C-alpha cells in the first residue's frame, strides 16, 4: 500500500522501529533490536491495526502479532526458510502446485501488515514481488495447460493489495478457463486494512463468474473491529463466501476462551472458521509455538462448548511440501 510519508504516524502505515516508537507501540529500550529485526524482515502496522493495540498492555494479543521482537534474530535448529516448501513445487514463477486438483497463484508478495510468525517471512515484504505482465501470462498459460487443476488459490502476499481492476482481471482470466470450478483468495486485508475493501472492490469480486471463496486470516476476536465487520459485510453482500483461517499462537489465542471468542466472533461476521493452523517453523518464530498435544486439548475443550459451525479443522503442514494433515483431536466412538 503506498501512502504519503508526510502524514503523521497515526494516519499512515508504520514501517520502521522509529515509527513504532514514535507511535508509542515500541518501548525505546527495544528500538535498537527492532531496527535489526526490521533490516531482515519487513515491518508494517496499518492505522487500523495500531488503533486496536493497547500500548499499556505488555501482553496485548494484537501487538504480539505485529511488533518486532529481538527473538526473531534467533533461528532455532528445527526452523527453515521455506517451511511449506513452495520453491520445489513451483512450475512457473508465482505458481505453487502441491496437490493434483488445486494450485496457488501468488500475484504479489506485499501485505498490508507483516505478521511476526509468517511462514513466508523470507519471501514476503515491502519490495512487493509483483509478477510482471509476462510472468502473469506464463502463469495463465500454465493453468490453461494443466486441466487437472480445478481450483486456484490466490495468495501471496495479499491479493487484496492489488487494485480492484487488476484483481478482477486476474480472477476473470482464471474463471474463463473451462476446467476452473473454484477460486479462492487468502487475505488479511478485511481485518488489517478494511478501508481497502471498497464498494468498488466488492463489486469487482461480485462480477466474477466462478464461485469465489475469501479466506480471512485472523487470530483474535479483537481483530474484528467495526470497520472490519463493515468490510466483511460488503464482501458478503457481493456474494463472496467467507471462510476464516487462524494460526494457533502462544500469547495470542492459546486458551479455550480466546479460541471460543475468535470463532464466535468470526461466525457473527459471517465468516465460517475453516482452518486452525499449527505454526510452521519459519525462522525466528519459536516464541509463538504451541505443542500439538496442547492444541488438541484446546480444541477438545471447545467441543460441545461452541456450535459445530465454530469448529475449524486443526491442521499441520508436513515437511517437504507433503501437504496438510488434520491433527484431530480424535474422539472414541460410544
Ligand atoms: S498477511 Fe499472511 S503472508 Fe502477509 S505477513 Fe501475515 S501471514 Fe505472512
Automatic annotation (TrEMBL):
Keyword terms of this UniProt record: 4Fe-4S, Iron, Iron-sulfur, Isomerase, Metal-binding, Pyridoxal phosphate, S-adenosyl-L-methionine
Keyword Nuclease recorded: no
InterPro entries: Aldolase_TIM, Lys_aminomutase-rel, Lys_aminomutase/Glu_NH3_mut, rSAM, rSAM_sf
Domain of life: Bacteria
Gene3D superfamilies on file: Aldolase class I
Pfam families: Radical_SAM
PANTHER family named among the record's database cross-references: L-LYSINE 2,3-AMINOMUTASE, LYSINE 2,3-AMINOMUTASE-RELATED
Family named by the database record: Belongs to the radical SAM superfamily. KamA family.
Sequence ranges assigned to domain Radical SAM core in this UniProt record: 97-309
Protein name (Swiss-Prot/TrEMBL): Lysine-2,3-aminomutase-like protein
Keyword Magnesium: no
CC cofactor: pyridoxal 5'-phosphate; [4Fe-4S] cluster
Amino acid at each position: 500500500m503506498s501512502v504519503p510519508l508526510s502524514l503523521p504516524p497515526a494516519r499512515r502505515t508504520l514501517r520502521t522501529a522509529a515509527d513504532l516508537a514514535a507511535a508509542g507501540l515500541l518501548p525505546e529500550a527495544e528500538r535498537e533490536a527492532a531496527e535489526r529485526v526490521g533490516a531482515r524482515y519487513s515491518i508494517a502496522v496499518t492505522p487500523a491495526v495500531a488503533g486496536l493495540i493497547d500500548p499499556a498492555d505488555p501482553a496485548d494479543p494484537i501487538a504480539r502479532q505485529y511488533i518486532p521482537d529481538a527473538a526473531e534474530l534467533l533461528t532455532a535448529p528445527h526452523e527453515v526458510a521455506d517451511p511449506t516448501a513452495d520453491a520445489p513445487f513451483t512450475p512457473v514463477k508465482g505458481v505453487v502446485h502441491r496437490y493434483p486438483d488445486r494450485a496457488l497463484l501468488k500475484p504479489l508478495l506485499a501485505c498490508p501488515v507483516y505478521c511476526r510468525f509468517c511462514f513466508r517471512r523470507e519471501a514476503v515484504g515491502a519490495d512487493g514481488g509483483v509478477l510482471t505482465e509476462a510472468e502473469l501470462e506464463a502463469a495463465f498459460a500454465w493453468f490453461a495447460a494443466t486441466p487437472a487443476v480445478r481450483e486456484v488459490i490466490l495468495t501471496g502476499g495479499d491479493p487484496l493489495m492489488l487494485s480492484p481492476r487488476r484483481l478482477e482481471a486476474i480472477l476473470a482470466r482464471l474463471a474463463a478457463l473451462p476446467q476452473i470450478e473454484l477460486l479462492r483468495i487468502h487475505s488479511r486485508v478485511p481485518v488489517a486494512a478494511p478501508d481497502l475493501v471498497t464498494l468498488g472492490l466488492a463489486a469487482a469480486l461480485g462480477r466474477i463468474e466462478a464461485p469465489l471463496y475469501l479466506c480471512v486470516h485472523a487470530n483474535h476476536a479483537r481483530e474484528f473491529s467495526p470497520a472490519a465487520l463493515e468490510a466483511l459485510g460488503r464482501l458478503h453482500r457481493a456474494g463472496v463466501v467467507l471462510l476464516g483461517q487462524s494460526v494457533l499462537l502462544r500469547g495470542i489465542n492459546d486458551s479455550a476462551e480466546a479460541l471460543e471468542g475468535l470463532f464466535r466472533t468470526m461466525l457473527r461476521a459471517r465468516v465460517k472458521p475453516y482452518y486452525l493452523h499449527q505454526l510452521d517453523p519459519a525462522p525466528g518464530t519459536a516464541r509463538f509455538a504451541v505443542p500439538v498435544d496442547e492444541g488438541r486439548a484446546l480444541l477438545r475443550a471447545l467441543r460441545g462448548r461452541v456450535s459445530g459451525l465454530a469448529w475449524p479443522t486443526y491442521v499441520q503442514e508436513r515437511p517437504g511440501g507433503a501437504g496438510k494433515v488434520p491433527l484431530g483431536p480424535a474422539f472414541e466412538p460410544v
